[in-house]
């Protein structure tokens, strides 16, 4: 699946057909991520509900979603995991790994949670 | 803080040291408010992320149970309100079934409509509540072993609305549903959507104790009970008002309607149950009544060949256990009844015609036989058609029909003779002008009747007699048809049954060759040629049905005796060791008679020739008495009477009898009828044709049959014992019956007598020690 993961990470970084803007973090440590609701909803039960028509708010035809209690660094990893199914934890400091563990629990990314916990 | 163990791993979210309760209350207030907004359909102002995070934090801080109970409370409160403000005001006017105030069930329909809205709102809200409480479902509900929040919502709806303790919602709901169904059964148009919504709701709710759907526990039984009652009443009403075909159409319609109803808005699991009820109330309970309906029931349908109605009855009644059995037995009884009627016309006909049966006109016994067979065949055709067109060729029906035919055919003790006579009639004249296929189909049909005969050996005996007459008198129309018939009998009964019949055919062929040779012999011979043409048919005595071992008495004229002698020398010269006996009772002769008007060629029997030749020596007007003729000719009395009858009392009166009359009596005087006139030059004096046997003849035939059965039984016993060497009594009887039943049904007493006879003749012995066992003696 190497090819598949690679292609999906390209979608995450370069694609211009995103339809979700996610504002992550609080005060100074804030960042906007762009993503595809199809992929988010397919990969995460949390986003499946969060991005359903009952709950979304739109600005200029873009779904806007705010996630203040997660840091951009951690959310970057979450997105990577969601798109590619892969994460190399060794590259990251322990503080971020801890944040990832908490976030994966909240976002109901069970597989990631187990993986980080084992690590 | 609680000291309970953390369920997850060592890594924990950071603990907040300050008052967790305040935090909880804050979170919970916001969530409760949000749920209320959802109930108010104000969800668009809410943030999923925030609410989810609230609930997540509560569960994370071990307040899952408080959250769960809080949610339960908020939802319950809401539903109580809904009950009071929406459901209760929509109750149909008191007494939902009072159709006077509420003729079209409009109140009921409205009630269902309100319930539908309430239910839809509730499920929509529950989906949203489920969304924001997803973390609680995943983490808390699982470990605490409580229902997921959506299921909790269903249970609360069940207990607060559907089975409310405070308001009679359940009663109204069930009554309205049943009323709507009743209205629809009575051809009112109802709004199925509303009914279906309520039913679907009941199907989605689960009864806590039985784990079955609330549809099954609360609704279905009531529905089935009222349906039972409804169709019980309707069944009684319908049988009283409609004839059988109409009744069945109504039932068909009802079955169809109920099936449609289930498909459109009930649960598929109800389908077999409601079907059973309609079948029980409308079919099972009225089976006999419908079958026996005067002028329209099963028998009138058969009588008028109402194939569609019969087909409908077959299909409809096949749905219930006893249905086909009742039909079968009713039809079989009817067949027996019709068969009995056919048998009765025959017996009344034969007794009525008994007096003039010998008169030679068309009303002879043979026509009675032919008519009987034809009527039976017509009946068979009729029921074959029914079987084919209405009964899907059901094997069980066929078997039962066959038994009925078998029953009445064998009730007529003359049936073997009649069937043989029918074939005789067809092979003699009936087949003229018919195509080969038609001939074949007539013969095939006859074979189906033949199958029903129990006493096939009796049939064989008659068939042989009739075949013999056809062959010897040259009455058979088609050799192919004759052989075809024998072929069919062979297929039915095996070659043993037909070897003798085939032997008779062989005799005819060989005789024809012999006659060619005899002519050549005469041409070459130096002896004086006979003054007449002699044609001889040599019959092998074992093949032919008559007793050929002795010559019947008869004084033949000298010329004939001489010619016979010549043939006898010729024949015995070729086949030494054979014995010829002359059967003068079976011959015919062509003689020329000179009458006042003209000469006629007369084709007569040998006996008639003998009688007529006596008048050659007499003067005109000189008569011969019955006794004189009898004495001089020595013809057996019965034959003499019959032949005199043919000459003096039938169509061509070659002799004149004094006193006149149809019967020949001792003392009668006979004169040669010099004034005889006839349009044709060649005249055939009807020999006595095949006809139903007289009682005396029948007795004789019966005796012969019994005698033959004795031999066949003994032969079977010996065959079996030779093979088995030793055998127990009952087993032997069973085996003998098995071997013989294709020809006749042997009576065990008869078999026992034959066994005893064989023991006496030392073919068998009783085993020493066990008298029930026999040994074969080689």
Explained architecture:
The complex is a heterodimer of chains A (119) and B (778). With 119 residues, chain A is of the alpha+beta class. Chain A has 6 helices and 4 strands, in the order αββααββααα. Chain A has a 4-stranded mixed β-sheet. In chain A, strand 3 (57-59) and strand 4 form a beta hairpin. Chain B has 6 domains: 20-92 and 103-174, 5 helical Cullin repeat like, CATH 1.20.1310; 234-320; 326-348 and 364-493, Up-down Bundle (5 helical Cullin repeat like), CATH 1.20.1310; 509-574, no CATH class; 588-684, Ribosomal Protein S5, domain 2 (2-Layer Sandwich); 695-776, Orthogonal Bundle (Arc Repressor Mutant, subunit A). Chain B has 29 helices and 9 strands. Chain B has a 3-stranded mixed β-sheet. In chain B, strands 3-5-4 form a 3-stranded antiparallel β-sheet. In chain B, strands 7-9-8 form a 3-stranded antiparallel β-sheet. In chain B, a hairpin with a 4-residue loop joins strand 1 (588-594) and strand 2 (599-605). The longest helix of chain B has 31 residues, at 323-353. Residues 1-9, 95-101 and 352-363 of chain B have low confidence and may be disordered. Chains A and B meet through helix 3, strand 4 and helix 5 of A and helix 2, helix 4 and helix 5 of B.
List keywords for this structure.
heterodimer, A: 119 residues, alpha+beta, four-stranded mixed beta sheet, globular, B: 778 residues, mainly alpha, 5 helical Cullin repeat like, three-stranded mixed beta sheet, three-stranded antiparallel beta sheet, 9 strands, disordered N terminus
In short:
The complex is a heterodimer of chains A (119) and B (778). Chain A is of the alpha+beta class.
SSE layout:
The complex is a heterodimer of chains A (119) and B (778).
Chain A: H1 2-14, E1 20-26, E2 29-35, H2 37-43, H3 45-50, E3 57-59, E4 62-67, H4 72-84, H5 94-106, H6 110-118
Parallel strand pairs in A: 1-4
Antiparallel strand pairs in A: 1-2, 3-4
Chain B: H1 20-39, H2 48-60, H3 64-87, H4 106-132, H5 134-144, H6 149-162, H7 169-185, H8 192-204, H9 214-241, H10 244-265, H11 271-283, H12 287-291, H13 298-303, H14 307-317, H15 323-353, H16 365-389, H17 395-411, H18 415-430, H19 436-452, H20 456-472, H21 479-493, H22 495-524, H23 558-574, E1 588-594, E2 599-605, H24 606-614, E3 624-625, H25 626-633, H26 637-648, E4 655-658, E5 669-672, E6 682-684, H27 695-724, E7 726-728, H28 729-740, H29 748-760, E8 764-766, E9 773-776
Parallel strand pairs in B: 2-6
Antiparallel strand pairs in B: 1-2, 3-5, 4-5, 7-9, 8-9
């Amino acid at each position: 699946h190497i090819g598949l993961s690679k292609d999906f990470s390209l979608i995450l970084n370069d694609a211009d057909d995103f339809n979700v803007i996610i504002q992550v973090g609080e005060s100074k440590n804030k960042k906007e991520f762009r993503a595809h609701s199809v992929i988010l909803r397919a990969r995460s039960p949390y986003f499946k509900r969060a991005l359903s028509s009952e709950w979304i708010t739109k600005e200029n035809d873009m779904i806007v979603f705010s996630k203040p209690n997660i840091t951009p660094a951690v959310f970057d990893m979450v997105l990577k995991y969601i798109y590619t199914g892969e994460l190399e934890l060794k590259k990251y400091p322990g503080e971020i790994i801890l944040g990832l563990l908490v976030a994966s629990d909240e976002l109901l990314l069970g597989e990631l949670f187990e993986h980080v916990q084992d690590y | 803080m609680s000291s309970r163990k953390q369920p997850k791993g060592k890594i924990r979210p950071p603990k907040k040291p300050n008052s967790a309760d305040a935090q909880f209350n804050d979170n919970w207030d916001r969530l409760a408010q949000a749920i209320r907004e959802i109930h108010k359909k104000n969800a668009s102002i809410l943030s999923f992320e925030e609410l989810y995070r609230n609930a997540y934090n509560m569960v994370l801080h071990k307040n899952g149970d408080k959250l769960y109970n809080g949610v339960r409370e908020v939802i319950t409160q809401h539903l109580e309100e809904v009950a009071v403000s929406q459901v209760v005001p929509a109750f149909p006017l008191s007494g939902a079934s009072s159709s006077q105030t509420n003729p079209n069930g409009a109140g009921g329909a409205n009630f269902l409509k309100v319930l539908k809205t309430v239910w839809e709102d509730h499920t929509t809200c529950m989906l949203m509540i489920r969304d924001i409480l997803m973390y609680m479902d995943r983490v808390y509900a699982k470990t605490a072993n409580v229902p997921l929040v959506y299921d909790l919502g269903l249970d609360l709806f069940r207990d607060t609305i559907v089975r409310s303790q405070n308001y009679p919602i359940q009663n109204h709901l069930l009554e309205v549903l049943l009323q709507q169904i009743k209205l629809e059964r009575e051809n009112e148009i109802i709004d199925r959507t509303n009914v279906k919504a309520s039913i679907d709701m009941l199907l989605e709710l689960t009864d806590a104790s039985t784990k079955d759907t609330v549809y099954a526990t609360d609704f279905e039984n009531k529905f089935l009970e009222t349906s039972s009652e409804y169709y019980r009443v309707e069944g009684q009403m319908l049988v009283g008002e409609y004839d059988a075909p109409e009744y069945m159409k109504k039932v068909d319609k009802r079955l169809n309607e109920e099936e449609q109803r289930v498909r459109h808005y009930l649960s598929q699991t109800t389908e077999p149950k409601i079907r059973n009820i309609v079948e029980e109330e409308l079919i099972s309970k009225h089976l006999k009544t419908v079958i026996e309906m005067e002028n329209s029931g099963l028998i009138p349908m058969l009588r008028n060949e109402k194939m569609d109605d019969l087909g409908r009855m077959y299909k409809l009644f096949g749905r219930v256990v006893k249905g086909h059995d009742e039909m079968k037995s009713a039809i079989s009884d009817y067949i027996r009844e019709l068969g009995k009627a056919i048998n009765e016309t025959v017996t009344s006909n034969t007794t009525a015609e008994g007096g003039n049966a010998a008169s030679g006109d068309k009303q002879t016994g043979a026509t009675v036989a032919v008519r009987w067979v034809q009527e039976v065949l017509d009946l068979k055709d009729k029921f074959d058609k029914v079987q084919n067109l209405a009964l899907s060729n059901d094997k069980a029906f066929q078997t039962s029909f066959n038994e009925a035919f078998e029953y009445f055919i064998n009730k007529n003790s003359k049936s073997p003779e009649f069937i043989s006579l029918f074939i005789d009639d067809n092979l003699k004249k009936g087949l003229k002008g018919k195509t080969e296929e038609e001939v074949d189909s007539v013969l095939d049909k006859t074979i189906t009747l033949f199958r029903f005969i129990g006493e096939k050996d009796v049939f064989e005996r008659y068939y042989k007699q009739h075949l013999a007459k056809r062959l010897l008198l040259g009455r058979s129309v088609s050799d192919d048809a004759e052989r075809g018939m024998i072929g069919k009998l062979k297929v039915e009964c095996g070659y043993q049954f037909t070897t003798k019949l085939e032997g008779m055919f062989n005799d005819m062929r060989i005789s024809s060759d012999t006659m060619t040779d005899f002519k050549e012999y005469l041409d070459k011979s130096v002896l004086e040629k006979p003054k007449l043409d002699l044609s001889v048919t040599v019959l092998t005595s074992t093949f032919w049905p008559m007793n050929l071992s002795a010559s019947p008495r008869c004084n033949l004229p000298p010329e004939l005796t001489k010619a016979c002698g010549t043939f006898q020398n010729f024949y015995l010269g070729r086949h030494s060791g054979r014995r010829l006996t002359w059967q003068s009772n079976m011959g015919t002769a062509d003689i020329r008679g000179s009458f006042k008007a003209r000469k006629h060629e007369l084709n007569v029997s040998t006996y008639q020739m003998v009688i007529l030749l006596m008048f050659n020596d007499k003067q005109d007007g000189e008569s011969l008495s019955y006794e004189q003729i009898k004495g001089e000719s020595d013809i057996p009395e019965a034959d003499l009477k019959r032949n005199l009858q043919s000459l003096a009392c039938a169509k061509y009166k070659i002799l004149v009898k004094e006193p006149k009359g149809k019967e020949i009596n001792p003392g009668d005087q006979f004169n040669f009828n010099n004034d005889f006139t006839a349009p044709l030059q060649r005249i055939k004096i009807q020999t006595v044709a095949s006809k139903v046997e007289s009682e005396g003849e029948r007795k004789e035939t019966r005796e012969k049959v019994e005698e033959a059965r004795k031999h066949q039984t003994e032969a079977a016993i010996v065959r079996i014992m030779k093979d088995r060497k030793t055998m127990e009594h009952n087993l032997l009887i069973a085996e003998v019956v098995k071997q013989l039943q294709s020809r006749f049904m042997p009576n065990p007493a008869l078999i026992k007598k034959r066994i005893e006879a064989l023991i006496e003749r030392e073919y068998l012995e009783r085993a020493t020690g066990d008298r029930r066992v026999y040994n074969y003696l080689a």
